[in-house]
Amino acid sequence: MNAPRRVHIRVRGVVQGVGFRFYVRRVARDLGLVGYVRNSADGSVELEAEGEPSGVSALIDAVDKGPSGASVRNTTVRQCPVRSSETEFVLRW
Prior knowledge:
Blueprint lengths: L4 E10 L5 H11 L3 E6 L5 E7 L1 H13 L5 E10 L8 E3 L2
Parallel strand pairs: 2-5
Antiparallel strand pairs: 1-3, 1-4, 2-3
């Protein structure tokens, strides 16, 4: 197993009200990642994901596309310190 990787991602575009958070949660769980996703007051969606580097990279690719109904305009990714304390990927409100 490679050392875990954690990223913070902010997604802008038509990403609220289109099932984006549920899509991210499903993909992240399928990839075995932990973390969270939530809507932001500015209309963007933000998330943090942690796990195998290949899984994190796959999630970044999936977020860039988004679910049908979404229109991703911009994705910002930054590295974060690994926490290793979370046990699942959750929706935050």
